[in-house]
Request: fold
Amino acid sequence: MSTLRYDVTTGDWVAFSSVRAARPDGFKRGNEVHATVPPALDPACPFCPGNEALTPEQTEVEPDPLDPSRWSVRIFANKFPVLEPKGSTLRHMSGPLFREMDGYGRHELVVESPDHARSLSEQSVDHVQRLLTVLHRRSRALSREGSLEVVQIFKNHGSSAGSSMLHPHFQILATPIVPRQIRIKYQMAAEYYQITGSSVYQDLCRAELEAGTRVVCQNSEFVAFAPFAARSPYETWLVPLRVAPTFEMADPSTLTGLSEILIDVLSRMRRALGNPPYNLIVNSAPRRHTDEPDFVWHIEIVPRLATAAGFELGTGMAINSVLPEAAAETLRSA
Ligand SMILES: [Zn+2]
Reply:
């Protein structure tokens, strides 16, 4: 069983899950993201159609609109979970410094499509909208569970971005605590709101649209820009113009616009940077703050073109070799 331990020196909770060490590595079979194009169906892949019995029972499935006997998106529990829906959220103390709790939570896999090789940027707007609708529905269901504080949706693309399976997929990890980075990010937005009376994300969107130099692209629902203090080269944020504190509270009618801009940004990165490994992170307010106007959910796409080294690990201060104005210009013209 996994456990969570609290670091009194940093305020971080750390998850310990020994089962993670047993994960298969789909990239070891010569399938690195830059290598030759893999087949659309891999008989050895547990995420491919025909191998459904190799994964835990699905929690959500979206049928193929053209052939309802086939699926187009599947969600199931991770066979190698960081957190599991058993145990309790009680903290145990061994003396005043060592706080520990069960690794309670959810860890689910979202297989984007039956196609083993088609990346998110190559999917149709209709399909991405279907995928986002399933993610929206599932995160809404998880956010109703009172013992879960944060429903974190993310995607790792490529082994150097932390992915162990080539078949394109998202993950949902729901935690019983608010991880420190989310705590700080929320606090910054709450303080800004207290001082100015408006949301930092709405003000930021307005200012970025006005400046224009860091905007990558936009549509009627979203704006994509390279943030002023981007931590990584080509880091890009997708922020909704119709605001909501969490992704699951976003109006479903905005998911078409989101699909379009997501494909647009990922295609630009693919053309400009040659299919880079990346992490896609959906940022939402912690569940207990969802009735407050200070936070606006948004997506961060972080290409993994550099490795954090000693200084970054020691200080938490990023070193970025590409100014966001130059990154946005490159992506705009890609
Ligand atoms: Zn597959």
The first helix runs from residue 125 to 143. Residues 42, 45, 47-48, 116, 167 surround zinc ion (CB under 6 Å).
